[in-house]
Amino acid sequence: MNHKPQDAEARRKVKPVICYPNETLPIPDLNRYRAARQGAEKVDEILVPARDARTFRADAGQFFRISSVEGSQVGDLNLFHATNLNERFYSGKTRALHGTHITTGERMWSSFPYLRPMATIVEDTLNWYGMDEYGGSVHDVIGTRCDPYTGNLLSGDQYHHCCHSNLTRAMADHMQGRLQDAEPHVHDVLNVFMCTGFTRDTGQYFMKASPVRPGDYLEFFAEIDLLGALSACPGGDCSAEHSSDVAACYPLLVEVFAPTNNALDGWLSPPVNGYVGSHGRD
Fold it and tell me: What would the mean pLDDT of 38-43 be, rounded to a whole number?
């Protein structure tokens, strides 16, 4: 360890500055969205089996809800533009704009060069949880997804039903193609219902038993035409481990709702980011 300078404590006490003040972000009109949700008709329903994944569609102006239906279960969510898989959920920028965990009124943002709202959370039955004494909260954008490569690195195993593999199979089915072509599209997720944080002493990513119970849900407004891919994590409620068949696991339900005609009159799907794209070159 290097020698501690005489002004070490003064350096530590420098006050932090928020990197991306978000007061100028466009504010979603939750009252309008909720009014449109009243009377909306269910147009699709997908049951995601335990330790597996499925894809779904939600058009711009529709709502989709992810629900716990049989037992405490977390899910890993990928989002794409429905007709352009290059535009996908950007967890890092979402984290920078909203924080480590997202809830009602906050948004999932898309990747560069698009950087626009993909989906807005309109209802979260776990928003009462807040931040616990360990620094844990729910619906994180800090974890990447459980995957077979890290599992092999740490324990040498060959587990095939982690969320990365589940999402890869689901995308291959959607694309009607090979696993090798689908896998590059799988990206860092929104960990739906998962309770996570960072330890105060070592800064390590931790998980703990999710507070989700059957009947809890997270509901979104689709800001653009969306393709979603959701994995029911092999960790179940993530109270112990994830990349194995040890945990009790349950399905997750996805429901898609379409508002009635004229319920969103005047609403416009957000355009792609307005940056000119020159990067300093004419």
Answer: 96
Helix (H) or strand (E) holding 63: strand 63-68
Q: Which two tokens stand for residue 134?
A: 């360990």
Closest CA to 246 of 151, 134, 145, 140: 151
Q: Read off the pLDDT of each residue in 102-114 and give the average, rounded to a whole number.
A: 98
Q: Return the bridge partners of 205, or none.
A: 198
Determine the pLDDT at residue 282.
83
**Can you give the pLDDT at residue 270?**
97
Which residues make Cβ contacts (< 8 Å) with residue 64, sequence separation at least 6?
A: 56, 58, 119, 219, 220, 222, 226, 228, 254, 255, 256, 257
Specify whether the CB–CB gap between 211 and 195 falls below 8 A: yes
Confirm whether 68 is domain-assigned.
yes
Q: Range of 199's domain? A: 46-258
Answer yes or no: are the C-beta atoms of 79 and 92 closer than 8 Å.
no
CB pairs under 8 A, 24+ apart, for 86-92?
A: 86/111, 87/111, 87/114, 88/185, 88/187, 89/118, 89/187, 89/188, 89/189, 89/190, 90/115, 91/141, 91/142, 91/187, 91/188, 91/189, 91/190, 92/141, 92/188
> If you compute the radius of gyration of the chain from its CA atoms, what whole number of angstroms results?
20
Is residue 17 domain-resident?
no
pTM attached to this predicted model? 0.96
| Residue 144 is assigned to a structural domain of this protein | yes
For residues 192 and 139, the answer to whether their CB atoms sit within 8 Å is yes
What would the two tokens of residue 102 be? 């997202």
Instruction: Let me know if residue 24 belongs to a domain.
Output: no
Between CA 195 and CA 240 the distance in angstroms is 12
Number of domains the chain contains = 1
Please state, for a pLDDT cut of 90, what percent of the chain lies above it.
97
- Look up residue 83 and give its amino acid: T
Paired residues of 195 in beta bridges: 138, 208
The whole-number average pLDDT for the span 205-227 is 98
Q: Report how far Cα 206 is from the mean position of its chain's Cα atoms.
A: 17
